[in-house]
Amino acid sequence: MTEQKVTRATFDEVMVPNYKPQDMVPVRGEGSRVWDQNGKEYLDFTGGIAVNALGHANPRLVKVLQEQSEKLWHLSNVYTNEPALKLAKRLTELTFADKVFFCNSGGEANEAAFKLVRKYAYDNVGPEKHEIISFRQSFHGRTLFTVSVGGQEKYRKGFEPVPEGITHVEFNNLDALKAAMSDRTCAVVMEPIQGEGGIIPADPEFVRGVRELCDQHNALLVFDEIQTGVGRTGHFYAYMELGVEPDVLTTAKALGGGFPIGAMLTTDKCAESLGFGTHGSTYGGNPLGCAVALEVVNTISDEQMLADVQRKHGLFVEELDRINHEHGIFEEVRGKGLLIGGALKPEWHGQGARFLAAARAEGLMLLVAGPQVLRMAPALNITDDEIREGMQRFARAVAKVVTEGPEA
Questions:
Q1: Structural domains in the chain, sorted by start
Q2: Distance CA 324, CA 336 (A)
Q3: Is 134 annotated as a binding residue?
Q4: 114 catalytic residue (yes or no)
Q5: Band of residue 4 on the pLDDT scale cut at 50, 70, 90
Q6: Identified catalytic residue from 253, 312, 316, 355
Q7: Any catalytic annotation for residue 11?
Q8: Over the stretch 210-250, which tens digit does the pLDDT of each residue have?
Q9: Contact yes or no for 250/44 (Cβ under 8 A)
Q10: Beta strands in 307-346 (DSSP E)
């Protein structure tokens, strides 16, 4: 059979049009570098949207995946397997959690978490305690339940009616949350840093206040750490810097270093409500994903590596401030660790795609977080030299866009 030639145009022919991928088609990656079909090299500041935490084709992950692929791929949850048990044990050693549920993605992890908090309230109080509160501009996934809990109407539009009993309030506004909570509240769901909402960190005092309100109302606190987890902020999970423990935590993206896996972490007390037969996942906890994830976890939980992520944050900010001093495109540079957002000034609002296209022409892969924020989420092991080289490319891209001027 003759090998098929595929291009970006093939996407439009055969794929559902819910994405608009870039014109280039990557075919190979190594560390923080990617090559397209034409052999052009790019520096990757996207990390697969904070997924490829150890870069592309990391030798240690490749080795583990190859070894496991020669043993077991899949069993189903009628049985368990060693990689899943080892990974669950390690996650409970490193975090507040006593119990783990494995799935395939962040959306599935959040789906499990939202079902758990309602089931826990149902078991311990009754059906009237079912209301979930989350925050405007939050993002929690693409299932019907998770887009409903997420605080961005554009992701719900056209899919109504959506699940009821969900309220959205302003992020970092404790008074607004206090006014919304009642004895009917079963859980508050939040991101320690709103990712898709614009790389907006939660104020530490706000987080502590959320925990106190949850305790007062006998409500569970859910931290969505899909994007902030597994070293992204320079802490293994972002909650560890805040001095507040959740009752439930969701994690995915970087957990598998590029191999699809997600997990919901919780306490013994909460876990009892997901008893036999209440929830499941055919592929969740598969040996391949769990073996790779264990290597990721053991590598990134190293104290020196986490400290290095925090140090590299300073280098990114230094370089971005230098570019901004010359071109004045950002109102603010924010974020933590290697999750960084440059909030564009009003005259550049809605024009993030122009900066992405110009960066791509210079051999740099970037992201946006909403239309007003340029986002960078590179591999955690990106080198200082690669950061500086990428910033040189970014500076040339910014200069080009600024020369053209804002769109009317």
A1: 8-57+303-404 (3.90.1150.10), 71-300 (3.40.640.10)
A2: 18
A3: no
A4: no
A5: confident
A6: 253
A7: no
A8: 999 999 999 999 999 999 999 999 999 999 999 999 999 99
A9: no
A10: 330-336, 339-344
